[in-house]
Amino acid sequence: QQYDHIMAYCRHGPFPTLSATAKWYDRRDFVFVEFCVEDSKDVHVQFDKSKFEFRCVSGKDKYNNEIELFGEIDPKQSKHSRTDRSVQCCLRKAEAGKSWPRLTKEKAKFKWLSVDFNNWKDWEDDSDEDMSSFDNFSEMMNNMGGDDLPDLDGAEYGAEEV
């Protein structure tokens, strides 16, 4: 057993590459993936049509996830953002309105990947009536003088109306 440990050390160096824990959920036009890595540095996200790669460093740990996707995405319209607690990826579907039953092309269970049930929504069952109700609710909240939600990029965040 000690030999196996030494061989693993030699193959990967003192700090082997790990798979970052991730959660995902599906929406009509996007798929969202959150990599749960605190205090990440050297974050690299590469989007391609049928896959994407996530890499970063946190402390002494190196993380690398390469994901062959269930469907195709628009790499130019896909984005990512980093916080102190995670890296959020927003993948623009190439075919909007098509449900993804899983994130990965391969129908397999990955220990590092789970469904984000807090954000999951069965949007396929939404009707136009449901969407118009949401629009009416949003308009009502705006008319009541409620704060608008900030943009993802934080532009005008904290600005007050006069």
**How is the CATH topology of the domain at 12-96 named?**
Immunoglobulin-like
Secondary-structure element order, as H and E? HEEEEEEEEEH
Radius of gyration: 20 Å
- In whole angstroms, the N-to-C terminal distance is 70 Å
Helix content: 10-25%
CATH class of the domain at 12-96: Mainly Beta
| Total E-strand runs | 9
Widest sheet: strand order?
7-8-3-2-9
Number of separate helices:
2
The residue ranges in which pLDDT falls below 50 over 5 or more consecutive positions are: 1-12, 127-138, 144-162
Strand content: 25-35%
Instruction: Find the structural class using helix and strand composition.
Output: alpha+beta
Query: What overall geometry do the principal axes of the alpha carbons give?
Result: globular
CATH architecture title of the domain at 12-96 = Sandwich
Main sheet overview: 5 strands, mixed
Mean pLDDT across every amino acid position: 78
Short description:
This protein has 162 residues and is α+β, with helices and mostly antiparallel strands. The chain is 17% helix and 30% strand.
Fold and architecture overview:
GO terms for molecular function: Hsp90 protein binding; prostaglandin-E synthase activity; protein-folding chaperone binding. Its EC number is 5.3.99.3. Keywords: Cytoplasm, Fatty acid biosynthesis, Fatty acid metabolism, Isomerase, Lipid biosynthesis, Lipid metabolism, Prostaglandin biosynthesis, Prostaglandin metabolism. The protein has 162 residues and is α+β, with helices and mostly antiparallel strands. It has a domain of 85 residues: Immunoglobulin-like (Sandwich). 17% of the residues lie in helices and 30% in strands. It is built from two helices and nine strands. The strands form two sheets. It has a five-stranded mixed beta sheet, with no helix packed on it. A four-stranded mixed beta sheet has the order 1-6-5-4, with no helix packed on it. A hairpin with a 2-residue loop joins strand 5 and strand 6. The longest helix has 16 residues.
